[in-house]
């Protein structure tokens, strides 16, 4: 039985949270941590209100605002211009007060993007089930947790019961072995993975990222990889907890301390997939072959090494793909055969829950130090949380960016998506460290190229997409 059958990391966490299996095979899972933001929670709280229900476990819940807020000083003084954004923020504030839900307000230094704040505060821990009404909840899987995005009706279900109905997913393992070449980062790993498996590659699966190149990543890199598992179609992404994880957890405000931490670590050490555990799908990548990547099209699978040229739709394998490539080439304002490194950028955005941690900011600063942003380029750094911002300032990194001509902003989702004042204007080309590049994602008509923080910084300095390996 399950005591002897080798199990995966996913299976172990799933089993440990199983409350009941329903007759149709659906599982009722206990949820340890519920993170809440302003976009997907209004109707959920409204549902509770209508039914006269309280929040089942307020201490398992934490709310924060991130999507709709401005990232300049105006957010502390001004009123949000966009009526829909304003309503979402005001509604969250009303709901957390009425339902007595723990909340990190805008004026609190801990405020930031929910997927940066959760791990930073120790709210997200190994072995947990973690949900949030947000697709990039997969980020927290880097802790060795089962973390995934849920819809608004599920947000209501979790608020009311602290449980969730789930179907068991298939297990997929993506193994990346070898040493990552200089200039390559976790972002290049995950873009290469999505380029290989496609945006539907992980459908129906939870991905466990394994292999020596994954083990060698720091937590920031692991968050980046798991963050984008959703762009590969997976339900969630996870990385087995190890010493890197335990070191990260120690001393976080909501993490266990002392003896409780020792006990927790003893359990966490039992979580990695057993030898011989079955994976329904296996994918293997050689880290040594990874090259700095950049997306050229309007889907995260349309990525290429920075050394490549814009694909020619005429060479597509079938008509449907040709039409798709044609549309992407037109929308992105490209010419087939053009070198990617010749593409001039208008905007550089360093931020988002994919790449806004202190390690990301340091990596960008290392490229920018002592240089200047190319004329005509708008470049901005948006730290993932107020604490990341403070830490960067304590290291003098804000000065590195400001001296170079970058904007140094307050924490939030910012230009990752067009839901707040930080937007591209039609036709603008942006080198962005975020995770999505569909049409209009960063503002109507905007053109997004996904890449790593170091690559974004390089583009800001040269004014065009640039192979970071060529920067002195
Ligand atoms: C607004 C929110 C529901 C959405 C998501 O689920 O991912 C957003 O965070 C995004 O990145 O598109
Ligand atoms: S930073 Fe971007 S991807 Fe992350 S939660 Fe915010 S909008 Fe979604």
Automatic annotation (TrEMBL):
The gene is leuC. Belongs to the aconitase/IPM isomerase family. LeuC type 1 subfamily. Pathway: Amino-acid biosynthesis; L-leucine biosynthesis; L-leucine from 3-methyl-2-oxobutanoate: step 2/4. Keywords: 4Fe-4S, Amino-acid biosynthesis, Branched-chain amino acid biosynthesis, Iron, Iron-sulfur, Leucine biosynthesis, Lyase, Metal-binding. Residues 11-463 form the Aconitase/3-isopropylmalate dehydratase large subunit alpha/beta/alpha domain. [4Fe-4S] cluster binds at residues 353, 413, 416. Heterodimer of LeuC and LeuD. This is 3-isopropylmalate dehydratase large subunit. InterPro entries: 3-IsopropMal_deHydase_lsu, Acnase/IPM_dHydase_lsu_aba_1/3, Acoase/IPM_deHydtase_lsu_aba, Aconitase_4Fe-4S_BS, Aconitase_4Fe-4S_dom, IPM_dehydratase_rel_enz, IPMI_cat. It catalyses: (2R,3S)-3-isopropylmalate = (2S)-2-isopropylmalate. GO terms for molecular function: 3-isopropylmalate dehydratase activity. Its cofactor is [4Fe-4S] cluster. The keyword Iron applies. Its EC number is 4.2.1.33. Coiled coil: none annotated. PROSITE patterns: ACONITASE_1, ACONITASE_2. Binds 1 [4Fe-4S] cluster per subunit. Pfam families: Aconitase. Catalyzes the isomerization between 2-isopropylmalate and 3-isopropylmalate, via the formation of 2-isopropylmaleate. It comes from the Bacteria.
């Amino acid at each position: 039985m399950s005591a002897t059958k080798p199990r995966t990391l996913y299976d172990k966490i799933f089993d440990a949270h199983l409350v009941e299996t329903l007759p149709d095979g659906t599982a009722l899972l206990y949820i340890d941590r519920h993170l809440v933001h302003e976009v997907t929670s209004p109707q959920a709280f409204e549902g509770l209100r209508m039914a006269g229900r309280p929040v089942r476990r307020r201490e398992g819940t934490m709310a924060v605002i991130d999507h709709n807020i401005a990232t300049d000083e105006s957010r502390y003084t001004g009123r949000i211009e966009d009526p829909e954004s304003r309503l979402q923020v005001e509604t969250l504030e009303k709901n957390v007060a009425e339902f007595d839900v723990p909340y990190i307000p805008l004026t609190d230094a801990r405020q930031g993007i929910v997927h940066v704040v959760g791990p930073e505060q120790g709210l997200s821990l190994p072995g947990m089930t973690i949900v949030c009404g947000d697709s990039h909840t997969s980020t927290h899987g880097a802790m060795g947790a089962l973390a995934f995005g849920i819809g608004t009706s599920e947000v209501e279900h979790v608020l009311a019961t602290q449980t969730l109905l789930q179907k068991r997913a298939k297990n997929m393992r993506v193994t990346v072995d070898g040493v990552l070449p200089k200039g390559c980062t976790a972002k290049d790993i995950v873009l290469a993975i999505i380029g290989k498996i496609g945006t539907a590659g992980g459908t129906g699966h939870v991905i466990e990222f394994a292999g020596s190149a994954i083990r060698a990543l720091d937590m920031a890199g692991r968050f980046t990889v798991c963050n984008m598992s959703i762009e590969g179609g997976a339900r969630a992404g996870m990385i087995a907890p190890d010493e890197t994880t335990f070191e990260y957890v120690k001393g976080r405000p909501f993490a266990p301390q002392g003896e409780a931490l020792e006990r927790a670590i003893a359990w966490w050490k039992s979580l990695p997939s057993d030898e011989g555990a079955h994976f329904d799908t296996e994918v293997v990548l050689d880290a040594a072959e990874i090259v700095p990547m950049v997306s050229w099209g309007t889907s995260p699978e349309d990525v290429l090494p920075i050394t490549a040229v814009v694909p020619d739709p005429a060479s597509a394998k079938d008509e449907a793909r040709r039409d798709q490539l044609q549309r992407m080439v037109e929308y992105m304002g490209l010419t087939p055969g053009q070198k990617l490194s010749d593409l001039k950028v208008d905007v550089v955005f360093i931020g988002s829950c994919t790449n806004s941690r202190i390690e990301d900011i340091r990596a960008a600063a290392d490229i920018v130090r002592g240089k200047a942003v190319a004329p005509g380029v708008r470049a901005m750094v948006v730290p993932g949380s107020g604490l990341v911002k403070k830490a960067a300032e304590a290291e003098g990194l804000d000065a590195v960016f400001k001296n170079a001509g970058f904007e140094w902003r307050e924490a939030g989702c910012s230009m990752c998506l067009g839901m707040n004042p930080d937007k591209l204007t039609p036709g603008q080309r942006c080198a962005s460290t975020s995770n999505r590049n569909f049409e209009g994602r960063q503002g109507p008509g905007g053109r997004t190229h996904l890449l790593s923080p170091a690559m974004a910084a390089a583009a800001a300095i040269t004014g065009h997409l640039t192979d970071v390996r060529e920067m002195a």
